[in-house]
Amino acid sequence: MKPLRYLVSLLLIFVVVLSFTPAAWAFCGFYVAKADTKLYNKASQVVIVRDGDRTVLTMANDFQGEVKDFAMVVPVPTVLQKEQVRVAEPKIIERLDAFSAPRLVEYFDSDPCAPMYDSENLPRPSAAPSALNESSARKRSADSLGVTVEARFNVGEYDIVILSAKESGGLETWLNRSGYKIPKGAKELLKPYIRSSMKFFVAKVNLDKFEQSGYQLLRPLQISYKSPKFLLPIRLGMINATTEQDLIVYILSPKGQAEITNYRTVKVPSNANIPIFVKKEFGEFYKSMFQTAYTKEDRKVGFLEYAWDMGSCDPCSAEPLTPEELKQAGVFWLDGSTADAPVSPRFRRPFPTSDVFITRLHVRYTRDKFPEDPTFQATSNRESFQGRYILQHPFSGELNCPAGREYKRTLSRRFEQEAQTLARLTNWNIQDIRQKMRLTVGNLTNSWWENFVAWLGFRD
Fold first, then answer.
1. pTM to 2 decimals?
2. Domain boundary among 372, 391, 410
């Protein structure tokens, strides 16, 4: 049996075990690194394409193990039919992650002794801009439990069942009797969805079809539906969670920025100049910075990490998605046609447009701080934003002119400000930061620079 290595989501799903199986640069500088989802051990990723009351939802999961042991349950607002479900390629989510991830950028000071230069071309940060046959006996049993099998079909390597239920105990019993080992505590978390008349999308792997597909990894599932509810059901994903969970949501809209309506949405700290040694520690920097901001906001906000028109980027950590890739991600309004999009043909937009605005939201959640599923809304705000952190390299050539000597006098103050900024963002020890900065500066070998290190004005 092929082992499952692909990361699959804990957020809006809970994973259940089948009991019958064995256990182009546009700025003065350049992009250096990005803080993508590889930084997090338990990062779930979801792509939501939304226009009006039409939604296409793509779920990448962090289940690890044998494919024979995989199954999942997702609350959905309507009964889904086969044409509303498809499998997507992991590459699409990887592309969205790379395009929208917070990034580190690098600038280099010009020679202050140069006789002439164009001030417009100074290296400075750019303006801040995201096989299921059911016996009649089983059907009678389902009826007695208040569970209705609304639909069943196969899509790719998955067998799908759509259920409705009258009470959570009956649903839990039905799932257990049907071979799904439900995590302890599911019954209580299922209740709110049943009260809201939501349905349940249940998927497991069809082993024969998975073998025939030739894929080594399970692919993301993508569903489309029409509903006024613009929410993400994350509570089931908290059943077995013992630590904080990270959720990255990519929202694609023809309008503008998306935001969470039942929790505050705040921008991640951005556009800060930090010491150049962070270039080798950007992953650790971003994780510490995010945790610090998360704690400061009392652990109950969603962070905006990126918001941009998909047609451009500055700086570009990855090329914008092509129209074909956007269609694969679920964008159903491109070219005024749904012929190639993974949604039902009846979900066609009346007025075609090519606008696609991406919002990247990062939510770190626990049961006590996020007792409700996050709900969203798309706004008309098309202001660009990105989590961006700046390395400003000092000029290290000869500085024998008055402007050069003045430049040298300003550097110690600039470096100390960078150290203080880094300490504030991350809660790292300021003395450790200063020491690392000394070591970084000391590695420079220019003739005047070694003398400069000796009087560099950092205080212990």
1. 0.84
2. 391
